[in-house]
Amino acid sequence: MLITHARLADGRDVDVRIDGESIAAVEPAGSLSADGDERELDADGRLLLPGAIDAHVHFREPGYSHKETWETGSKSAAAGGVTTVVDQPNTSPPTVDGDAFDEKVELAKKSLVDYGISGGVTESWDPDSLFERPLFALGEVFLADSTGDMGIDADLFSDAVARAADAGVTVSVHAEDAELFDESARDRDAGGDGRDADAGLWSAFRTAGAEAAAVERALEVGAESAASIHIAHTSTPEGVDAASEAGATCEVTPHHLLLSRENLDELGTYGRMNPPLRSEERREAIYERVADGTVDIVATDHAPHTREEKETDLWNAPSGVPGVETMLPLLLNEAREGRLTYERVRDLTAANPACIFDLPQKGRVDAGRDADLVLVDTGKSRAIRGDDLHGNCEWTPFEDFAGVFPDVTLRRGDVVYDPAGETGAISGVFGDADGANVRT
């Protein structure tokens, strides 16, 4: 394929030639012409981005396929311009030994997009067999329970970080200190059963201080073993600053970037996640750090649950929200409105995660890299609707937010999403490319 007259995030107008799975050439617009059977797509000045890398998803297989599957999750990813995902270990069985890893890889072969598989840590984990596999990372390592009840104690965390350091594997940390949760929040539930509780009590329960303390502890343990530490879904400016000052990396989710406790009256239990939404003041401080480069990446913590599961009382509703399909569209709309630059969106979603997690073939529109590409018309946005999304749960915390969605998504040169059919490559919206493990 030859893509002509595309605009890159840095403002250059280019032609891009694709040969097989790779980008063969990137030249000034108008300098390349189609050869032989080469299909030509005139971008007509639309923005061409490297495919996004979502370094934090929960595609729920095995064990919870009613929430999401590799097929539905990867369709949602492709429709949102995400061409690589990294799945986390809290499935059933959890990905804590070689056999569980192999089982997940077999399921992941249904993916339309590329994927990485992270191993996890529990009391019964088998690091010897786990580290024999091509792990993407050790993570999400939980310092407090969330979905899957995989929280571990301080001694096991230290041992796991040391083992990962020896194996040269990055440790992605869910940083919350359960000992600093505010149990008095439950006492402020007037009914006592969570049915009529203010949704903000979940944020009051899992305190900002609990995250900040856990980030500090994770960084200390990482330093002791010279481990590579990545702080997942950082929800506080204190956590971001601590990671930055220690030379570690961190991610922020779209929901912590764009939502706060002020949205909980409308969201109710649909807005329960771990870590929880914070104050509007903290959200604004997080946004500043995303915009100025202090935050390394945006990743979704895509954690779908069904409406039936969410529509229960506050204390028993599962934590998590979907997000893989809306991350890039939301950030592109922020850039469209002038609050971020398109270069910053590229770095947050593609260039930086490729660098941090050692994916040299991904993250940039450069010759020799994988042809993971997203073509978008930045002049067009549309309202996000849960019913229009392609995941299993069919809802979103960003209902009615504006998003700039892809016109075409390519993964290693294959068209995996093409709603208008303008490439002539497929019949229908989605392609049939098989995703590949980026660590094999």
From TrEMBL:
SUPFAM superfamilies: Composite domain of metallo-dependent hydrolases, Metallo-dependent hydrolases. Binds 2 Zn(2+) ions per subunit. Keywords: Hydrolase, Metal-binding, Pyrimidine biosynthesis, Zinc. Pathway: Pyrimidine metabolism; UMP biosynthesis via de novo pathway; (S)-dihydroorotate from bicarbonate: step 3/3. One of its GO terms (biological process) is purine nucleobase catabolic process. Substrate binds at H58, F59, R60, N90, H305. Residues 48-392 form the Amidohydrolase-related domain. GO terms for molecular function: allantoinase activity; dihydroorotase activity; zinc ion binding. GO terms for cellular component: cytoplasm. It comes from the Archaea. Pfam families: Amidohydro_1. Belongs to the metallo-dependent hydrolases superfamily. DHOase family. Class I DHOase subfamily. NCBIfam families: PRK02382.1, pyrC_multi. Catalyzes the reversible cyclization of carbamoyl aspartate to dihydroorotate. This is Dihydroorotase. The gene is pyrC.
